[in-house]
Write a structure and sequence with these properties.
Elements (H helix, E strand, L loop, with lengths): L2 H20 E10 L10 E4 L7 E3 L5 E7 L3 E5 L6 E4 L4 E6 L9 E2 L8 E2 L6 E5 L1 H7 L5 H4 L8 E4 L2 E3 L12 E5 L2 E2 L19 E8 L3 H4 L6 E7 L7 E8 L4 E12 L2 E12 L9 E13 L4 E15 L6 H6 L10 E18 L2 E17 L5 E2 L2 E3 L2 E3 L4 E23 L6 E24 L6 E32 L2 E18 L12 E19 L2 E12 L3 H5 L10 E15 L3 E20 L5 E23 L2 E16 L1 E2 L2 E2 L11 E9 L7 E10 L2 E2 L7 E2 L2 E12 L2 E8 L7 E7 L2 E6 L4 E9 L9
Parallel strand pairs: 1-7, 13-16
Antiparallel strand pairs: 1-4, 2-3, 2-5, 5-6, 8-9, 10-15, 11-12, 13-14, 15-16, 17-18, 17-47, 18-19, 19-20, 20-21, 21-22, 22-23, 23-27, 24-27, 25-26, 27-28, 28-29, 29-30, 30-31, 31-32, 32-33, 33-34, 34-35, 35-36, 36-39, 37-38, 39-40, 40-43, 41-42, 43-44, 44-47, 45-46
Length: 779
Amino acid sequence: MSRFYKAVLLAVLFLAARATYAQTNVKGKIIDATTKEPVAGATIHCTDENCHCGCTTNASGEFEMRCTDCRTLAVSYIGYTPQQFAVSNKAYIVSLNPAASQLQEVVLTANRGEGAKRSEAPIAITTITSKTIQDAKPTMADQVLNKVSGVNMVNLGNEQHEMSIRQPMTTRSLFLYLEDGIPIRTSGLYNHNALLEMNLAATKSIEVIKGPSSSLYGSEAIGGVVNFITAAPTAVPVLKLSAQGNNVGYKRADLMSSVSTGKWGFVLSGYYADKRNGYLEYSDFHKGTFTARADYHFSDKTTLSNSLTYLNYYSDMAGGIDSTMFASKAFSNPQTFTYRKVDALRYHSTLTHVWNDNSKTTVAALYRDNTIGQNPAYRVKDDYRKVNGVNVGKKDLAHGEINENRFHSYSLIAQHRQNLNWKKAVVIGGLNVDISPSTYNANYIRIKKDTISKKYVSYQNTDSTLTDYATKLNNYAAFLNVEFNPIEKLRVVASLRYDYFHYGFDNHLTPSAFSGSPDTVSNFHRVSPKVGFTYNFSARTGIYANYSEGFVPPQVTELYTGVKVPNLNPSIFYNYEVGGWVELVKNKLSIDVSAYRLEGTNEIISVKLDDGSFANQNAGRTLHRGIEAGLNATPIKDVSFRLSGAYSKHEFVDYVEKGVSYNGNEMANAPHWIYNAEVWYKPSFVKGFRIGAELQHVGSYFVDPQNTATYDGYNAFNLRAGYQFKGFDVWVNVLNATNNYYSYITTKSSFGWSYQLAEPRNFNVGVSYDFANLFKKNQ
């Protein structure tokens, strides 16, 4: 071999050896710094000029690639702060922190869980992030939900509640509560306390859509939709235990555990809460709940997720206190035996298959088993009363009932997402079937009242059955959502849903105006449209507008109980909305605003008939208008500030109930002003420490629909502080720090005033430890 060929061969061998030597096999996982969940679809690329290697993470957050002459890699994903790390041969676990700007975050509820940029969703939607939840350490959902502009979740004690989102504070079926995009209760059997059935320990984040969303989620999504998104299996082992308690009788222990191995991922989370000897007499409760989730990855394209949630709940039902007790600050209670208890089981299995980058199908099967038993305080009525100005009845006698409502649900939800190669178009379509047989019964009880203490001291069961019926509730639906960009900065979104309801009523008693209507079948159907657009002037400024319709079918109790002939139609709501957002200073100051006009028609009211009796009819019209705004600021590195507020007005347009006209009046329990302000200080020189202050304001409002009396509203001031170190997290939350004396909600009726008393100043102290720190390797 000539010298020339030998030289060429040596050169080739040298270059090959050099290339082999310079190549580095890089692999690892990308995870969320707060939740420890894998970040799927994150982009990893080399920042060096001479290397062009890059890849994306799979469903488990994993990546692997070979790089040549690469010294630094960059990681990025929507909603997270980009990060860089040096290349080596070790396996990486890179933790991404959520971005300060909320304009580019991904929201799931806007298009049935498929994920969309906030700036491309033409709705008022807010995400309560996992970081917000971890900082607040809420013992009840209102402690985080009320941070959202225009939201006022009313605390009725022991996780019981009412809701106000673009509506007065109400128990009406105008809000839809979801868990991972699936309703936690079936339509037609709304319960205003439904959120006590949620497992906060399993909640990763919460999304709130304000305004009607029936075009995607069906009935009851009128004032708003609240979607609790549960924790998925983590990419690294997690085992966290916590305990907390306060000085007004509350104690709680939490568990959160997760591990992934091979194709499997597991999560177990739950808590047990107990309260005894609180500030208000007869207000004890306990709640135990857990969620078990198992995910199996058949491949990078196919995943099966199974989730089971169980709840056992019991609460004394204290009821509100009267004006005399409120004025004298006497916290005794006339109730001694009333209660509410709930047993709930929810299971859903979701199969997801990604056909390719443009096509995905999801099928979910759901089973619910729910029982609510009550000896309700609101059903206790004195026998002694005034009739036509004359006192009649026995002073030591009262009347009440014990009732139970139970339902089973069997549901199937199937949907498909298709990206089209035209104007960035996306089509999402699907079908929904929900079959939910239910039963309800109520038995009369005779109550003994102490005429001196005014307490209801005991009761006697009787053979008198007040109500006993069964109902078949079937809901069949089809939905379609279309999105596209006719021009570069304009995104148009249109959705349509058709719902068909079949109610089969079986009265086990002789029909009457009290026991209910005769056996009958009722059918309802409705098409719900929604259309809107977003226009983004830049990555930091945009506007949106939408028109939507929502509907609420008659609830079973409205349709069949206490009426001779059921004759009701769904209530229809028409919504007009505009809004926008602007980031004035990048990652430091942003503002969002929305304005709406919501018209309610066919609302169900009780109408006085010619013979003096009453019947439910679709004869009510209401008008709801408001402006909502939020401001987020980070004026300096370690300080963040948030202000969320709303001004609204809720009016009766055409509303004559039981012979009384409310036309032109404001609706009761509808404050004009609601706002929440919060500031956090997290000093960089004390890593892991946080301290925050929060102000919640609820303005004055009328307490009766006649507009004859008002309540001044209230201000509540809360302080929170915590410190994280070596797997420990300790915190102290001082709620109602100024010890303000107020009522969460105040009402007035022919029976007098009722105040739902707020808790006095209370110190909640807690500690948690994450044992996963013992298992960490190469982080």
